[in-house]
Amino acid sequence: MTKRIFRSMSLLAIIVLLAGTFVVMATLYGYATDIQQEEMSAQLRLASRGVEQSGASYLNDLDMGETRLTWIGENGTVLYDNMADAASMDNHRDREEFREALLDGYGESHRSSTTLAEKNIYLAQRLSDGTVLRIAATQDTIAQLSLGILLPVIMILIIALIISLLVAHRTSRKIVEPLNHLDLEHPLNNRVYEEITPLLSRIDGQRKQIDLQISEILEGEQMRREFSANVSHELKTPLHSIMGSAELLENGLVKEEDRSRFTGHIRKEAARLVSLIEDIIRLSQLDEGSELPMEPVDLYVLAEDAAEMLTVPAKEKNVTIQIHGESAEINGVPSLLREVIYNLCDNAVKYNVEGGRVDVTLTKDKESVLLTVADTGIGIPKEDQVRVFERFYRVDKAHSRNAGGTGLGLSIVKHAGKYHNAVISLESEINRGTTISVKFPVR
Ligand code: ADP
Known about the structure:
Blueprint: H1 2-54, H2 56-60, E1 68-72, E2 78-81, H3 96-104, E3 106-112, E4 118-126, E5 132-140, H4 142-180, H5 197-250, H6 259-288, E6 295-298, H7 299-309, H8 311-317, E7 320-325, E8 329-332, H9 334-350, E9 357-364, E10 368-375, H10 397-402, H11 409-419, E11 423-429, E12 433-441
Helix pairs in contact: 1-4, 5-6, 6-11, 7-9, 9-11
The structure holds adenosine-5'-diphosphate.
C-alpha cells in the first residue's frame, strides 16, 4: 500500500513540479524579454538623439557594453559598428528592421542564431538625415534558460520524492491502522470507512451463514447422541422382556397352559426388535444423505400393497381400508415410498377404533401427486401434533408398544418425504380421526 501511495504521490509531485516550472519559466522569459526590449529602445532613443546632435563623434565616445550599435547609411552600407569593422561588413539593406525603419521611422526584428541557443533582438530608428541607427542584443532562449535551472529543479524533485515517501508511509499506516483493528466478530458495528461497508456486510452475511452451519452441525450431533441413547433404551426393553420370559420358561416356572402365551410374547417382542432395527437402519441411511437410485413408482400400486399387508390387523379391529383415485406415478426411491405409505396406513389402523375406516386417496395434477391417508381413529392432541414426527416420540407409549410401534414410523415418513421434496401436512381431532397428506412434486 505504501508503495502505491508513494508512486501516485511522486507522480503527482513530478507533474506539478514540471508544469509549475514550465509556467514560471515562460512567464519569466516573457517578462525578461519585455524589460530588455524597453531598455534597448531607451538606449536607442538616447543614441539617436546623440547622433542627431553630434554626428559620428558621439558614437566614438559611446560605451554601450554588451549592446551592439550599428549605424547604417540610407543605401544599407554600414557606416559604423561598435563591435566590428564597418568597412568589412555586408550591406544591410535587406535586414528586416532596417527596411521597416526606412519605411516607418522605426523597425524591429527577432532572429534566432544558427545554433538556436540564442536569440537576437534588433531595434532600428531612422534619423532625420535618412540614415538608420540599429541596436542589437542577444537573449537566451527558453532551452538555455531551462538548462540553467536544471540543477535546482532536480534538487526540488529529490526533496519532493523524499517528502512523498514519508507522507506515503504515514498515510498508508494511517489508512491501514483502523482496518487492522476491525471487529470481525461484529462486522456491522465498525464505523471506519464508508467504502468498506459492502465488504463488512458481506463478512457479516458469511459469519451468519457459518454460525448457522455450526449450530446445524451441533444440533445434528446432539440429535445423534439423543438418538443413540434412545436406541439403546428401546432395544433394551424388548430384550429384557424376552430374557424374563425365557428365564421363566427355562426354569419351568410357567404352567403348561401358559407356555404358548409366553412363547407368543417372546415372538412378538422379537418381531418388534426386528422392525425397530429395520427402522433404525432405514433412518441412518437417510441421515447419511447418500444418493439412492430413483425410478418411476406408482403410488397407487404401493397403496394397494400396503392395504394388502395390513389385511390381518385391520380385520382384527374390524377396520375397513379403501383406496381412492387412480394410478399416480412419480420418480422416486421405491423402498422409501413403500415405507411412507405403509407407515401411514399402519398408524391409521393401529390408532383406529373398532369398526373404523381408513381412506387412502391419490390425486394428481400437472405439478404434483397428493397422497392422503385419513382415518376415523383416536386423533392426536393439538400439543403433540408437531412432535409426532420426532424420533421415538409417542403420544401414548403403552398404546404404541402394544400395537407393535417403534416410535420411528412418522420420522421415517418425514425424512423420506424430505428426500423426495414432498410437503407433509397433518390435521387431527381427538376422537374424530387424523388425516396426513404428502404432496410430491412431479419432476
Ligand atoms: P409409532 O411406532 O409409535 O406408531 P410413529 O412415529 O409412527 O410411531 O408415530 C408417533 C406417534 O404419533 C404414535 O406413537 C402415536 O401416538 C401418534 N400417531 C401417529 N399416527 C397416528 C394416527 N393416525 N392417529 C393417532 N395417533 C397417531
